[in-house]
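Dear colleague,

Thank you for sharing your sequence with our group. We've completed the structure prediction you requested, and as agreed, I am returning the results in plain text so they can be pasted directly into your records. Please verify that the sequence below matches your submission; if there's any discrepancy, let me know and we will rerun it promptly.
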Amino acid sequence: MTDRTRPLDPWEVLLAGPRENAVRVGLAVPLSGPLAMTAPSALDLAGLAADEVNAAGGIGGRPVELVAVDSGRTPAVVAADAAALHRAGAFDLLVGFHTSDVHRALERALPPEARYVFPPPHEGGRRRPGVLRIGPSPLEQHAAALRWLTLNRRARRWVLLGTDYVWPRTVHRAARQVLSAAGAQVVGEAFVPFGPGDAGLLVDLVLRSRADAVLLSLVGRDLVAFNREFTRAGLDRRVVRLSGALEENGLYALGGDATGELFACMPSFAASEDASDEGQLALQERHARRSGPRAPVICAYARGVYDGVRLAAALADGRPAARASAGPRLGRADGLVFRDVLPARAS
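Please find the predicted structure tokens below.
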């Protein structure tokens, strides 16, 4: 593919005016904030998805264009900007990769006719018509992983640590249900705000509670900071950690992990050496051909964005909206890769 699709600046799109011979897909990706380290991966995979749609003839002969919106800002700001851009005709559909508090704000702000695809793991609950969530719910994502770790790692005493917003709170409710049924108990819980904080206080909670497992619903840089402090405290080799937000960029930011006790449950692991997902391997090959050997890693979030752009294109083309993302998997961190512990779509 010689013509690579790159996201357009929304304000330049507005100045240029409408382009009736193109389909514009809004791409709400965290260019700032705690998830910003995943943005290069997400932008690259969104571009690949648009390239492939365009190479196949576009949508009724019209090319797909991507219009970038920074979803790393506060929910109210992201929602107001996206709603205003949609009303002004800057994009026709929206694909959003961001935290669930932004997701909720966007659902409220976008007009009823707006079509909005949300690919990452979501918070569950009701959704309005026109919104498609293609990631797993908290129970779908975490249930099998929690049961497996309780049984196979004898993880009986759990501490639940999360960022203070809607997704971690629903994850913790689902986790309490699963752990109770599995014969485990929750011995501590804490929610912390986004941004730099004292990860040592969370580590102290794990120590005081004599936990043998931690469920982490921290995200992005905050998740990385906690795991670094956890390792410095010497807990990484004896306390199990499970995260529903740890992906390849976060693992790279940690410098890898070789303890055998850091686990993640995500819809895909692009860096898994023993991955059996042929579609994932083919996607990696196409990405490497497009972006070269120095391209950002394909992470679980970026894979979701790729699926989301392809789904948005299908919607714009009048085709049925089939769920595109893979089911959750449980992977164990091993250096800079994940090794599958449970197969895809475990439940």
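Summary note from our side: The chain has a mean pLDDT of 91.

Kind regards,
the structure core
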